[in-house]
Design a protein that fits this description.
mainly alpha; 183 residues; 2 domains
């Protein structure tokens, strides 16, 4: 059985034990480690981490205690965004159409709070207002950031992920550094 070539989630500790024993058996019969790991959908590093020492270790990442991000949206802010995108008027619209409609009404959702409290949104706001080509006014920048916020929340909810500042600034970081905006 071959998986898509990407790593996959192993849900049960027992499953990791079975996978490790199968990989070790294949390896003892002359199969190379990396291709064997790829066949079952894990990386060589995952295999090594599971097999560390005499026992087979379970994946501890899902059970660890992670600190709450300082810039996390409050429950009220998150709920306000979810309420807006679930209104029948906006239910079938993409964020690029929801944001201008809200901005026309003077609603900027949680963006002003984020520009004040969130380092990534603060950097983007400054970038949009000072970029050399087509700089935006403060209000235009807030509208763009509203769209980014809606897309960000949609992605987080859809993919059930945590907020990742590096992923959020992925495409814009070189421009921030070039303009000496990055903190």
């Amino acid at each position: 059985m071959r998986f898509s070539g990407t790593t996959r989630k192993i849900n049960q500790p027992r499953e990791s034990e079975i996978i490790v024993s199968l990989i070790e058996e294949a390896n003892n019969h002359g199969e190379r480690l990396i291709p064997t790991c790829e066949v079952v959908g894990i990386s060589k590093r995952t295999f090594e981490r599971w097999r560390l020492g005499d026992t087979i270790n379970e994946d501890k990442r899902k059970n660890c205690i992670r600190p709450e991000p300082k810039n996390k949206l409050s429950k009220e802010e998150r709920q306000s965004v979810l309420n807006i995108v679930s209104i029948p008027e906006y239910a079938d619209l993409p964020p690029t159409q929801i944001v201008p409609s809200l901005a026309d009404r003077g609603q900027y959702i949680a963006v002003i709070t984020l520009v004040v409290n969130n380092q990534e949104f603060k950097l983007l706001h400054k970038y949009y207002k000072t970029r050399p080509v087509n700089p935006l006014t403060g209000k235009q920048s807030l509208i763009v950031l509203c769209g980014k916020l809606l897309k960000l929340i949609f992605g987080i909810v859809k993919n059930n992920e945590e907020y990742d500042p590096n992923k959020f600034l992925e495409g814009i970081k070189p421009k921030l550094i070039e303009l000496n905006i990055a903190a």
